[in-house]
């Protein structure tokens, strides 16, 4: 994949962490580190003049945290995909960063192979938050979500099948599980999800999960 190298930008206030990620990323033939920053403010400044595809973004940093930095990056003409990294599994900052437009959420102790896979997934347009992690994250902050169903106008445009698929995505099912549930091919499920994203104007699967909870299509289990 020498002609299609994934350009990765690292943002973490610990130099040792950045050094470790650099060694890992640069060891891969299909990706390389193109820049680094020690806080969110520096990251936003540098990324405006540094072409990159995927940003590994620490959440807790001085000056400007990863949440605000993620939000600012989304306003750029060529906004990179952001993977939020945190030390804690259930972190309110990580949830806020996902709401701000991050494409994924991973723990800093994620196995190297999984981190590399996540970078490739995000680069190809997929989300990298596992269904179980997304579910735990949203259920943990269920108190901040509306009690009553809030119907969005764009949900009315969904077909009955698309609403069913959206519901199962929000419940944390994978494409394979949804395909088995409705006796569909995975390709058909992907098509449905693509149409749901287009109709709702959302960017990825993570945003669909958040939408499902925000609109009351699915309620967190107690």
From TrEMBL:
GO biological process: phosphorelay signal transduction system; regulation of DNA-templated transcription
InterPro entries documented for this protein: CheY-like_superfamily, NreC/VraR/RcsB-like_REC, Sig_transdc_resp-reg_C-effctor, Sig_transdc_resp-reg_receiver, Tscrpt_reg_LuxR_C, WalR-like
Domain Response regulatory, first and last residues per copy: 7-123
GO molecular-function term, one example from the UniProt record: DNA binding
Keyword Phosphoprotein among record annotations: yes
CDD domains: LuxR_C_like (cd06170), REC_NarL-like (cd17535)
HTH luxR-type domain ranges (all copies): 151-216
PROSITE patterns per the UniProt record, alphabetical: HTH_LUXR_1, HTH_LUXR_2, RESPONSE_REGULATORY
Modified residues (4-aspartylphosphate): 58
Keywords, comma-separated and alphabetical: DNA-binding, Phosphoprotein, Transcription, Transcription regulation
PANTHER family to which the protein is assigned, alphabetical: TRANSCRIPTIONAL REGULATORY PROTEIN NARL-RELATED, TWO-COMPONENT RESPONSE REGULATOR
Name the UniProt record assigns to this protein: Response regulator transcription factor
